[in-house]
UniProtKB/TrEMBL annotation:
It holds the Pfam family CoA_trans. Keywords: Transferase. It comes from the Bacteria. It comes from Klebsiella michiganensis. SMART domains: CoA_trans. Signal peptide: none annotated. This is Acyl CoA:acetate/3-ketoacid CoA transferase.
Length: 329
C-alpha cells in the first residue's frame, strides 16, 4: 500500500479550480493551517486553484489565518458559512460584492453533513423560519451579488408543518485536522480542544467521492493507536500532512500552542479571579442568569455568554446547580 503521507504543497495540488472545498475548524481550533496556507501560496504564485466554493460551519480564523488564506478575489466565487467576525478580509470581500456569500446556521450546516453522508438530498428543519435565513425574507444572502442568485434554501410544508429545506452540497475536497495518524492513516484528535464535525464531514466527503486531506501533529507506527481513540478510520482519508511547525501551524487555539488542560488531559483548580467589573456586558449576563433554575442545562456561545456567564455563575456560587454546555459540542 502506498503511503498516504505527503507534504503541504503536494496536498495543495490536489485542489482543482472549480472545486467545492469544505474546511473544518472553529476560530483556529482544528484549522489545518499548513494545508490552507499552502493552497493560498499556490494560488498567489500559479493562479490556481480558482473559482472555488468554500463551505464551512463555524468561522475559522483569528483575523489573519485559517480561512483568511482563501480571501483573494478570484480564488473563491461562492462562500457558504455561518460566521466571518474574525475574518476581516472576508467581510470586506462580502461587503464589496467580490464573492457570492450565504450565511446559514452553524448547527444546520453540521447536521447537513450527516444528512449528506446518509445519501439524503438535504435536511428539513424548523431552524431559521422567520429569520433572515428564510427565503421569504433574505434567504441567507449577504450582499447584492448573492441577491441575484436563485434561492439556496427552500420553504416547504410537510404534514401540515412549516420547515426550511437545506439542500445537500456535493463536495470535492474536505480538509480536516487531527493529532496523530498511524501508517494506515487512522486519525485521532487526542490533543485537539474539540473533535468538532470532523467525522461528519469526512463521511459526507466519501458519499460524493471527494478527497479527504488531513493535517496531523504526529506520525506514529501502525498498531500504536488505541482503537477507541481513533476518530476517523484510515480508509476514509486520502492524504495526510504532518505539520512541520506545530507551534505556528498546529496550535490548539490562537492563544495557546498546547495546554493539557484544554484537551482534558488534566484539570486545573478553579481560578480565584476577581469579580468582573460591572459594565454593560455583565449587566446583560446578570439579566440572563435570572432565568437559571436549579437543575437546568444551559448552552453558551461565543461573545457575551462566553465572556461573562461562567464568571457570574462562579461569583454567585451556583455552579453545582446548573449544567453548562458549549455551542461547539
Amino acid at each position: 500500500m502506498s503511503s498516504k503521507f505527503i507534504d503541504a504543497h503536494q496536498a495543495a495540488q490536489r485542489v482543482a479550480s472549480g472545486d467545492t472545498v469544505c474546511t473544518v475548524g472553529m476560530t483556529l481550533i482544528g484549522a489545518a493551517e499548513s494545508i490552507l496556507s499552502a493552497i493560498e501560496a499556490r494560488f498567489l504564485t500559479a493562479g490556481e486553484p480558482r473559482d472555488l466554493t468554500l463551505l464551512h460551519a463555524a468561522g475559522q480564523s483569528d483575523r489573519q489565518r485559517g480561512i483568511q488564506h482563501f480571501a483573494h478575489p478570484g480564488m473563491v466565487t461562492r462562500l457558504i458559512g455561518s460566521h466571518w467576525g474574525l475574518a476581516p478580509r472576508w467581510m470586506a470581500m462580502i461587503n464589496n460584492n467580490e464573492v457570492e456569500a450565504w450565511c446559514l446556521p452553524q448547527g444546520q450546516i453540521v447536521h447537513l453533513y450527516s444528512a449528506m453522508a446518509a445519501g439524503l438530498t438535504g435536511r428539513l428543519s424548523p431552524v431559521g423560519l422567520g429569520t433572515f435565513v428564510d427565503p421569504r425574507m433574505e434567504g441567507g444572502r449577504m450582499n447584492a451579488r448573492t441577491r441575484e442568485r436563485p434561492d439556496l434554501i427552500e420553504h416547504v410544508t410537510f404534514r401540515g408543518d412549516e420547515y426550511l429545506f437545506y439542500p445537500a452540497i456535493p463536495l470535492d475536497v474536505v480538509i480536516v485536522r487531527g493529532t496523530h495518524a498511524d501508517e494506515e492513516g487512522n486519525l485521532t484528535t487526542d490533543e485537539e480542544v474539540m473533535k468538532l464535525e470532523v467525522l461528519h464531514a469526512v463521511l459526507a466527503a466519501r458519499r460524493y467521492g471527494a478527497q479527504v486531506l488531513a493535517q496531523v501533529k504526529y506520525r506514529v507506527a501502525k498498531g500504536s493507536l488505541h482503537p477507541k481513540s481513533i476518530i476517523v478510520p484510515g480508509n476514509l482519508i486520502d492524504a495526510i500532512v504532518v505539520c512541520e511547525e506545530p507551534q505556528m501551524d498546529h496550535r490548539q487555539t490562537s492563544s495557546w500552542d498546547f495546554d493539557p488542560a484544554l484537551c482534558g488531559d488534566i484539570q486545573l483548580p478553579a481560578a480565584q479571579n476577581a469579580p468582573l467589573p460591572l459594565d454593560l456586558r455583565k449587566l446583560i449576563g446578570r439579566i440572563a442568569c435570572r432565568y437559571l433554575t436549579p437543575g437546568c442545562v444551559i448552552n453558551l456561545g461565543t461573545g457575551i455568554p462566553n465572556d461573562v456567564i461562567g464568571a457570574i455563575i462562579h461569583e454567585e456560587r451556583i455552579g453545582e446547580q446548573v449544567t453548562i454546555t458549549v455551542e461547539s459540542g
